[in-house]
Write a structure and sequence with these properties.
The protein is mostly beta strands. The chain has two domains: about 80 residues, no CATH class; about 120 residues, Acid Proteases (Cathepsin D, subunit A, domain 1, Beta Barrel), CATH 2.40.70. The chain is built from three helices and 17 strands. The strands form four sheets. Strands 9, 10, 11, 12, 13, 14 and 15 form a seven-stranded mixed β-sheet that branches. Strands 3-2-1-7 form a four-stranded antiparallel β-sheet. A hairpin with a 2-residue loop joins strand 13 and strand 14. The longest helix is centred in the first third of the chain and has 19 residues. The two termini are about 50 Å apart.
């Protein structure tokens, strides 16, 4: 008896989940760059670029129609148009939180499958590695384009390369521009804007939150 009750409970929970993901969408008002829509009977006034909690985003609107993005797909709806759809919530954005050490944000990441210690540096235009680190990663940086660079010791030369990927915890960015300096600097690899520029960066007190964009 217990076995059958447990099986029935699983079926019931699955059914409830399926119902929760069903979206009923109705366009009830249209304006320039705004729209009033109902999602499962709840009314929302959206401006272009804004989304409901269910993830229905207003892409464009005028007096005759609205363009909504649902599950990553854009659809056009005239006034009074209604659809029902199975909705899968958008995946959570990968996020990493860092705390300062002596005023600096340090973290360990992965470059092309190898562990690398990084200093987060928003003032660096690209990821920067010294020659020893590049060799450890198996990078033939002399094949890169030679460029002038400015370091703490003055000016010098580096080599522009592209890293297959850079990963910090669950944030992974592919084809990241980098510079290898033919010498001991930087002692700690710099996590520059060629990586950070593809993330949302937010300071919350001393904590630094990095969030991957989609």
């Amino acid at each position: 008896m217990t076995k059958y009750w447990f099986t029935a409970l699983i079926i019931l929970l699955n059914s409830v989940s399926a119902v929760a993901e069903e979206l009923d969408i109705l366009v009830v008002g249209l304006f320039a760059n705004q729209a009033v829509i109902e999602v499962n009977g709840e009314r929302h006034l959206l401006k272009v670029g804004k989304s409901t909690l269910e993830g229905v985003k207003l892409v464009a609107a005028n007096s005759s129609e609205a363009v909504l993005e649902i599950k990553g797909e854009k659809q056009t709806f005239p006034l009074g148009d209604r659809i029902s759809t199975q909705f899968s919530p958008p995946p959570e954005q990968p996020e990493v939180s860092l705390w300062p050490t002596n005023g600096m944000y340090l973290t360990t990441g992965t470059v092309n499958g190898y562990n690398v210690d990084f200093l987060v540096d928003t003032g660096a235009s690209a990821v920067a590695l010294n020659a020893a680190t590049a060799r450890r990663l198996g990078i033939d940086f002399y094949r890169g384009q030679q460029v002038g660079v400015r370091t703490a010791s003055g000016t010098g030369y580096g080599y522009q390369i592209t890293l297959d990927y850079v990963q910090i915890d669950n944030i992974k960015v592919y084809n990241v521009a980098a510079v290898v300096l033919d010498g001991p600097e930087p002692a700690t690899a710099l996590l520059g804007m060629s990586f950070l520029g593809q993330l949302d960066i937010e300071h919350n007190g001393e904590r630094l939150d990095l969030r991957q964009k989609y």
